[in-house]
Backbone:
């Protein structure tokens, strides 16, 4: 269970990006966070694995308070939190297998990592997961030879290699074409069910959020102003989430198209 | 409504008074230096005669003592190879220290300071110091060129590290990877091509510089050349010069060829 209470993040001396935010995620549900650019979605996700330092508040993952961890304890906590990125963040010049194994770097020694001496269990698990998402035949290819959808599958497998207790996805489909984008969303939903893994997805595409996730959280200016099942997201709620920003027009267009 | 049909690029210095003042200042300064520089035209004329004598004595070049020449050249090569290996190995940690995006502030300043000190003296000056410190010979040359290599390789590599895609580092951090594993997976693969290119370039550059630092006593073919001049063996000196030029052309060609294929 992930429990966020009174989370505040302020960059410099300006207006906080996150304002006393509270959010609880239980079970293995797929939760999407929607909201216009600058609403604080990405900051929220990055506060959870501390790529961004929260200013105050508390984030507890399965009994561990994450906000005050340092050094080795922080690294140990991060191992339990998988992350999938918008621009994939693969190491282009390394092979798919090396990229996938980089999800295990928190578990193996630096020497083993440099010598590429991965434990047998990890190699077997890598092949299983790559098989599952359909990229096993690319194991020896360089990551930059793959297409966008394939690269994001590598990103997903890398995160799953960590045996995470929660998966964070920061706009995982924003760099992909519509069809591939739906495939990746479907994959995230299916994997969540298979691995009993809670998944938290930042997403701009409201249609995909409705289609593939169990719960939608709407953010506006650092606050959560909507939190319900996809069915409850009506026009009035959409207006509140996206009002007064260009993103409103985009969401409208999408709704009519779907 | 009519529009103008001429257009000029806005000048680099927009204030016209300042612009013309800068132009005029540069011209006046160059004129002033020419006038005040002590050039003794009589000595220049004498020098021309002496130059004629040197070149006259240099032709035809003499390869009689080619054993000495080959020894000197091989020593230069050894100096260059050792200095490149040592310099590049030391450059890597210094480059990481001197990269703003990954080093903590105090470490960054220390790294930058090392690079600046290594760059601020010409190899000849460094060589004079090392010859005083460790005596005549190739060891002084190796030390000199190590400093020279650090100044160039560490600086260029640090700049490459500052240009990396930081998302890859973020991905490793998010997975809980320790510091050195993150360097090995997220940064090394990104800077590797530049690293290899710089090493080859530096080897070529060190070979050239080893001839120069030899003249002030730091061993190698430069020392052979200085001796030949000292003994008025202009024909041998010309032979040495020709070999140096040929070797540099060759190494430049090879290093360019390899770097293009990286």
Residues:
């Amino acid at each position: 269970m992930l429990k966020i209470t009174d989370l505040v993040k302020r960059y410099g001396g300006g207006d906080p990006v996150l304002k006393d935010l509270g959010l609880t995620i239980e079970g293995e549900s797929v939760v999407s966070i929607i909201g216009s650019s600058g609403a604080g979605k990405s900051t929220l996700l990055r506060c959870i694995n501390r790529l961004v330092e929260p200013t105050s508040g508390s984030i507890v993952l399965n009994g561990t308070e994450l906000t005050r961890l340092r050094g080795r304890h922080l690294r140990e906590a991060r191992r339990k939190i998988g992350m999938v990125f918008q621009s994939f963040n693969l190491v282009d010049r390394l092979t798919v297998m090396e990229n996938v194994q980089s999800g295990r770097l928190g578990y193996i020694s630096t020497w083993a990592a440099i010598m590429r001496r991965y434990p047998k269990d990890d190699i077997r698990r890598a092949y299983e997961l790559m098989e599952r998402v359909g990229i096993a035949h690319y194991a020896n290819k360089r990551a930059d030879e793959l297409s966008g959808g394939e690269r994001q599958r590598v990103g997903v497998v890398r995160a799953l290699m960590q045996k995470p207790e929660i998966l964070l996805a920061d706009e995982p489909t924003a760099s992909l074409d519509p069809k591939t984008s739906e495939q990746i969303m479907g994959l995230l939903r299916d994997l969540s069910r298979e691995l009993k893994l809670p998944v938290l997805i930042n997403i701009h595409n409201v249609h995909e959020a409705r289609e593939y996730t169990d719960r939608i959280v709407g953010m506006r200016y650092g606050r959560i102003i909507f939190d319900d099942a996809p069915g409850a997201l009506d026009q009035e709620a959409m207006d509140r989430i996206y009002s007064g920003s260009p993103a409103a027009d985009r969401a409208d267009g999408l709704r009519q198209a779907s | 409504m009519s529009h103008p049909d001429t257009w000029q690029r806005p000048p680099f210095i927009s204030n016209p008074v300042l612009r013309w003042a800068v132009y005029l200042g540069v011209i006046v300064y160059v004129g002033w230096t020419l006038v005040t520089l002590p050039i003794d035209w009589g000595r220049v004329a004498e020098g021309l005669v002496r130059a004629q004598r040197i070149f006259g004595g240099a032709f035809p070049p003499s390869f009689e003592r080619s054993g000495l020449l080959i020894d000197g050249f091989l020593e230069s090569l050894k100096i260059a190879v050792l200095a490149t290996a040592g310099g590049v190995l030391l450059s890597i940690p210094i480059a990481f220290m001197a990269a703003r995006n990954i080093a903590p502030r105090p470490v960054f300043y220390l790294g930058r300071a090392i690079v600046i000190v290594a760059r601020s003296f010409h190899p000849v000056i460094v060589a004079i110091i090392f010859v005083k410190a460790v005596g005549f010979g190739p060891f002084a040359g190796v030390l000199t060129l190590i400093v020279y290599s650090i100044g160039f390789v560490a600086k260029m590599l640090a700049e490459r590290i500052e240009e990396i895609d930081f998302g890859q580092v973020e991905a490793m951090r998010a997975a809980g990877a320790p510091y050195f594993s993150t360097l090995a997976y997220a940064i090394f693969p990104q800077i590797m091509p530049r690293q290899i290119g710089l090493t080859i370039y530096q080897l070529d550059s060190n070979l050239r510089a080893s001839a120069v630092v030899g003249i002030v006593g730091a061993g190698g073919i430069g020392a052979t050349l200085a001796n030949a001049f000292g003994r008025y063996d202009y024909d041998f000196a010309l032979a040495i010069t020709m070999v140096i030029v040929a070797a540099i052309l060759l190494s430049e060609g090879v290093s360019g060829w390899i770097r293009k294929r990286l």
Observations:
- The first helix of chain B runs from residue 16 to 36.
- Chain B has one domain: 65-260.
- The two ends of chain B are 57 Å apart (CA to CA).
- Residues 65-260 of chain B form a domain with the MetI-like fold fold (CATH 1.10.3720.10).
